[in-house]
Design a protein that fits this description.
The protein is α+β, with helices and mostly antiparallel strands. Among the domains are: 44-210, Alpha-Beta Complex (endopeptidase fold (from Nostoc punctiforme)), CATH 3.90.1720; 221-328, Immunoglobulin-like; 379-514, no CATH class. 22% of the residues lie in helices and 18% in strands. The protein is built from 17 helices and 23 strands. It has a six-stranded antiparallel sheet with strand order 5-10-6-7-8-9. Strands 13, 14, 17, 18 and 19 form a five-stranded antiparallel sheet that branches. It has a four-stranded antiparallel sheet with strand order 11-12-16-15, with no helix packed on it. Helix 9 packs parallel to helix 11. The longest helix has 12 residues, at 382-393. It is elongated.
């Protein structure tokens, strides 16, 4: 294959003109830019179509999205979308103007595809040339050839020309949708401009393929970089040789994999994707990686994605890469929070109570001390999450002479916490002997870390709580356990978003609930109150009537089965369950309205020896409210049975 080229983005003076005869305009977004039907003038070098990969073609197409439609033109700036141009009216009586005094950029459908395909030869994108009409693309085979629609691949095109040969339209093909329409790149008229989106293409559209496109990559690995945003980088990758097995995906930032780059992230394409099932024969080939927190600096960063051939270990650049992203993260004081512990979290804001509970428990000091801020919307890194969990669980930092992970040196501030977490069996790192401390913790790994740190028993269920975490998928049981304990209800009513970065607000909720620093909400809709104390034998209780009943019934469903009973086995489980009901039942007394290990209403001093001991030190716990301070005291009190976590 011909070596890759860098297409110049330097602005040039408009030196050429094109006389375009207006023809009748088809109202269905058809472009009519007829010109000479002969081969446009080209150099000998241009006559041999230069090689391009599909990834290169799609990458060029993406740079034109957002620009205005300009009938008979083919220019835009691939480096910066600053002057998009403006189109008004309808073709052929449409007018075009520059944006804010900038260069007059815009393109029509055939000019757009010609520039993206770089035919008849390599041409700077901002330079006006416009060599072809849709008639050329439809009837001539110059630097392209006709193919069957069934053989369409990303970076091929579909062209239409009316019977009178006076107008038509051309789009750059990306993929078919499950509904039978196509996802395309196109410049489709004044009201639409140059866009990427779904389009229904009738049988009159003919499929064509650029000559010299890389149809035979050395690797069988293939896939797509669907999107790159400040939350996640997502796509899919597949290799025929691996079949249903997951293959490795490598993301590099600010440079391709074989050149200098600022960061490399390795992941597995193993997430379920319903849209891939029929196309590939198996579904679990998606990947989702949080955008690196180290690159949230407000600058533009390019994202490259590669599928790694499992046999040859060769990287294959994915279609859609590279993409450019600019992200920043931070916070500032907001009105209404002037007297709050965190000046960016007013009362009633998301995770307000949980973040303050973590602050008061000495688990976090927030993201800034002057002014005191929490940065709730920022993603939490793996080292930050582990550090919080080690503090919440009361583990002592460990400092072995030989590091467990190659990327966490003894000089790292989080070294002791990460080593303690590894020694406790909470984590084995991110692969290849690394921990990836500065990378955002995704919601799947966060579920596993929180569940293990809090010592919650794994839940076994065949009925998934979330559509995007099917039974048997990665960390399925860990996520289901947090859902069963009402620690999480997902990122929406139907999904958990396992690959998405965990925000600091979400981390606060996970930790505060898992360690009983705040009351756990009743996520079992419609559940009534407990008919009797879980410390006594009796009728079955409703799942969710209390955190204690919920924990017991996760382990022994018959305790909450209407046809069963709350037998002695249920009572014993209540006495042994961590946090929620251990101290309530430990000394055989049942008059406590809730566990002493969790916040709630004030408890009478005589309901348990635990309550009596805590209230002897802090009378407010039995006269005002059993708040998180009381719950924390109970966890450290020898008369209580909460344990260190």
């Amino acid at each position: 294959m011909i070596a890759r080229r860098i297409v110049s983005a330097a602005s040039t003076t408009l030196a050429l003109s094109l006389a375009i005869a207006c023809a009748s305009f088809d109202p269905a977004d058809r472009e009519n830019a007829p010109g000479s039907e002969a081969e446009p003038t080209a150099t000998v070098e241009q006559a041999v179509t230069a090689g391009m990969s599909r990834a290169e073609i799609i990458a060029l197409a993406q740079t034109g999205v957002g620009y205005s439609y300009w009938w008979g033109r083919d220019q835009w700036d691939p480096t910066e979308k600053k002057f998009l141009g403006s189109c008004s009216g309808s073709c052929p009586k449409c007018s075009h103007s520059a944006t804010g005094g900038g260069p007059e950029y815009g393109a029509d459908c055939s000019g757009y595809v010609a520039k993206v395909w770089q035919v008849p030869g390599p041409t700077p994108i901002p330079k006006y040339s416009h060599p072809y009409s849709t008639s050329h693309f439809r009837w001539n085979e110059i630097h392209w050839k006709r193919i069957a629609r069934a053989d369409l691949q990303p970076a091929d095109a579909l062209v239409y020309r009316n019977a009178a040969n006076t107008g038509g339209h051309i789009v750059l093909f990306d993929r078919w949708t499950s509904a039978g329409s196509a996802m395309v790149y196109e410049c489709a008229g004044c009201s639409t401009g140059c866009r990427y989106g779904s389009k229904t293409l009738g049988s009159a559209y003919v499929a064509i393929r650029r000559n010299g496109v890389d149809d035979a990559p050395a690797s069988n690995a293939r896939g797509y970089l669907d999107s790159a945003g400040c939350s996640n980088i997502e796509g899919w990758a597949f290799d025929d040789d691996a079949g249903a097995g997951a293959i490795e995906v490598v993301l590099t930032f600010d440079g391709p994999i074989d050149k200098e780059h600022s960061l490399k992230v390795t992941t597995k394409a193993e997430l379920p994707r319903a849209d891939l099932c029929k196309v590939l024969g198996s579904c679990d080939h998606g990947y989702s990686v949080p955008f690196p927190s180290s690159l949230r600096d407000g600058k533009n960063h390019s994202v490259y994605a590669y599928a790694i051939d499992p046999e040859t270990k060769e990287p294959q650049q994915l279609v859609g890469a590279p993409r450019t992203v600019s992200c920043s993260c931070g916070s500032s004081p907001v009105p209404g929070a002037e007297s709050e512990p965190f000046r960016d979290m007013p009362p009633g804001s998301f995770a307000h109570d949980e973040a303050i509970a973590l602050l008061d428990a000495g688990i976090t000091q927030g993201c800034s001390s002057e002014p005191p801020l929490y940065c709730a919307s920022c993603s939490i890194t793996r080292e930050q999450l582990v550090t919080m969990l080690v503090r919440a669980a009361g583990l002592s930092p460990l400092t072995p002479a030989k590091p467990t992970f190659s990327d966490v040196a003894p000089s790292s501030p989080s070294y002791g916490a990460i080593e303690a977490a590894a020694a406790a069996g909470w984590t084995s790192g991110c692969g290849n002997g690394r921990f990836c401390p500065s990378e955002p913790a995704n919601r799947a790994s966060a579920a596993a870390l929180v569940r293990r740190a809090a010592g919650l028993n794994l839940v076994t269920t065949t009925e998934p709580s979330f559509d995007d975490v099917p039974a048997g998928s990665w960390l399925y049981q860990e996520i289901e356990t947090l859902a069963a304990y009402c620690i999480t209800q997902g990122c929406s009513s139907t999904e958990y978003c396992p690959g998405r970065a965990t925000t600091r607000a979400e981390a606060a909720i996970f930790i505060a609930r898992a360690f009983q620093l705040v009351p756990i909400p009743d996520c079992k809709k419609g559940a009534a109150g407990c008919a009797h104390s879980p410390c006594k034998v009796g009728a079955p209780l409703n799942v969710g009537c209390s955190s204690c009943a919920n924990m017991v019934c996760i382990q022994k469903p018959s305790c909450c089965d209407p046809s069963g009973t709350w037998d002695q086995g249920c009572v014993e489980l209540a006495g042994d369950s961590p946090g929620a009901c251990a101290s309530e039942c430990a000394d055989g007394q049942s008059s406590c309205s809730h566990s002493e290990c969790e916040a709630g209403s004030a408890l009478p001093t005589g309901c348990s020896s635990c309550a009596a001991s805590v209230c002897a030190k802090d009378a407010y716990c039995c006269s005002g409210a059993w708040d998180w301070i009381c719950a924390k005291a109970a966890k450290a009190d020898p008369y209580c049975s909460c344990g260190s976590n």
